[in-house]
Sequence to fold (232 residues):
Amino acid sequence: MLVHKATTGSTNADAGALARDGAPHGSAVWADAQTDGRGRLGRTWESPPQGNVYLSIVLRPTLPLDRVPLLCLGAAVVTAGVAGPHYRIKWPNDVQSPDGRKVAGILAEMELERGALRHVIVGIGLNVNAAPDLPTATSLLAVDGATRDREGIVAALLDGLLSICADLERAPDDVLARWRRASSTLGKHVRIGSIEGLAIDIDPTGALVVATDHGVERVLAGDVEMVRRHDA
Ligand code: BTN
Fold:
């Protein structure tokens, strides 16, 4: 089932309602505009009606709970691939243009029932033709001037999400390897909250592994800032 709406509050909320009504794995909602777009860490996602993609899919994977965050990383791999070959991923799942500006964000929301995973909603906001007026954001159109068919993008994202979900169940290490290859974070000096150091890897649950002056830390969530080292 694929539902298209001209305007909605949040496609993640819509997909969550479908999932609670029993919608099968792979059901999805996309919209031309959102009035209450949700971002990571409680933020809002600007969702103007100017030809962007706001898409949410219902996933019902067979994954241990500690591997569910890998869906976010996998969705970023898919989205970066759909955006183009030179797009990169800032941990955990911001998709960046070749010059390091954000073109897409991903919000995964899971629901449990008696401690077991019921479903996960993976929502993708991809700036196809318009971006917030911020130096840190851009759109696919601004990067290369090409016009794109949004239906084609939605179809490619849905195909990619279903196949990466299956890959995560069968061969999670392959997905982790694809994320590492697309990462703009690994090998950089980073700050995430109070933790600062060299981003050396992601672990099997998708946590960022940072070598600090006091030892190795695993970071489960947060915003990465790149740090310029004066001694480097
Ligand atoms: C982020 O903060 O980077 C994540 C943004 C996720 C936005 C998308 S747009 C489609 C879906 N519906 C929402 O309300 N949020 C996600």
